[in-house]
Amino acid sequence: MNNVDAPVRDARGPAGPGAPRSGDLRDLLAEGTLAVVDDGDLRTGRDRFERAFRLAESMGDEHAMAVAALGFGGLWAHEHRTVAGSALLESRIRRALESIDPRSSLALRLRIRLAGEGDYRSRDNSAVLALLEQARSRQNPMARAEALSLAHHCLVGPRQGALRRELAADLVAESFRTSRRSDLLMGLLWQTVDMFLDGDPHAERCLAELRGLLAERDHLAVGFVVSAMEVMLAVRAGRLDEAEVLAAACTERGVAAGDVNATVWHAAQLVTIRWYQGRVVELVPLLSEVVNSPTLSAVDDHAQAALAVAAATAGDRRKAASALAMLCGRDLGDLPVSSSWMVTMHGVAEAAHLLDDTATAARVYELLSPYGHLPMVGSLAIACFGSAQHALGVAALTMGDVDRAVAHLRDAVRQNLALAHWPAVRASADRLAETLERNGRQAEADAVRREFAVAAEEGPPASPEPDGSDGAGRRDGHGQVQPALLCTRLGRRWRIDFGGRRVLVEHSVGMLHLVVLIANPRQEIRAVDLVAGLTSLNGAAEHTALSGQPVLDQVATREYRDRLARLRAELDELEAAGEPERAAAARIEHDWLVGQLAGATGLGGRVRRFPEGDERSRVAVRKAIRRALDRIAEADPVIGEHLRLTVRTGVRCSYWPA
Hints:
about 650 residues, about 65% helix, single chain, 30 helices, three-stranded antiparallel β-sheet, Serine Threonine Protein Phosphatase 5, Tetratricopeptide repeat, mainly alpha
């Protein structure tokens, strides 16, 4: 990742209308930095740094070429997946290193990027860690931050949890020295990833902090990973249909960010969902394509393992055996221990079981045993297949060691309960019961089914609150707890909270209509009254039993009026001082506040009605609400889908939570 940290030298050579200009070069480097560092827009960043490198090359500006080569590497390690793309990046970095002072901070940052690229593919890690130590001794926070992030990305296998956590914590601390928001986001992201990889019960706390920062200001690349984690958590919760909707939205976000993992991660998410739906056979054609995709990481073997499982489940033993043999090669232990290794081992164990391959099962058992305490989480916490004890149990069963298989599967159920991974609880309990039944232990099998049936189907029971809810919602007429949807005004935006999710949406007329409907669930409100404003609704409260959540409560109204008074005084001072730009900015806020107060109270306390009547009001409200729903769905597909299913528009409008 790059910041433009030194001026670009003026071009030498002939000047003229067609000659390249240093100003253009500075603009390209600045735009590339802004795209990657501030916005997480990897696609735009690559484009600007590519153009900057070519322009600097034509101008003979070696320093600018070095800056562009560094920025072209991007945010993550191994963003350039194809052979040609990877070779192009490394050749540019080496060329830049030959032409700049080897003692400079820029040269160190280039060497760090080069080491990170090589170590990621080789899984050696020694080169990038050695350069990290060099960076720690330098007075250059950006070099240290980049080394910490790239080293972390090279250390996401199951063996290096403690070191990863140290690097992530150091990156968060370093972010306050670099003053780059992306460093803070990356540090928090790596901490969140580490906690999920380690099965830490507090992982979602760290994720919530990250969500909060992204709600304040988005970052496409980090937000893409967070959206992938949301898919994983929906699968753990057993909301598989919702997870599939989220996966599609996640892919769109990844494509928008220009992340090379967008389509590969979507395939991995579908594998997880279909596995727990019992529909993995449907993925044979997709996986047959993915295993040969040039965008698949050189150290990622999960798709090959999934293909072996899907083909074996479909009865195509020939394809399954071939896929498994390709994985095993000379020795299964030669597979790179990457971020997808645990998930790959899960697939190998299942495929070996389906193919009665005892030798492969024994090797999986040997390799996976040191990590039995960990969950089988793939990549940057984008997929989870539950406890590694499950794969160990399946491998032991294939080997014919029933007692050991039973012990592992019991541990798998317990660990999956701790993960709140309900599909995995059910899968491990079912496999345990089947194993006991096949060995004549029917009473034990029946006990297992009774013990875990409720937990596997319904999830953990909630402790009821005094009002009959669980603290996260209300009970409907059937006694079921429904998540509460709450809207809170924050200046020019609304915060929407729903079932542990939170999103910020800009204020709009449609959002105002939604807030009124949400505040009055299961109550029909005329579209003409929504258009007329809050005064009309308050007047109708006696007849419609409205709950009366004000759009602007008394405290907010008082604060708005106080701010208006201060703005009027400020406007007088600015105009007297002859500062038109600051006065214009203050007047914009003044006019906005006047509009908000007028919309909430009605002019002169009178009801304002849409002059054309019910039909025009119906159309206006429907369009305004639809636009608001589109913005909400873009920010959070789950909340958006909930509102699309529960908000009704027409001559009368309403919100009907399930």
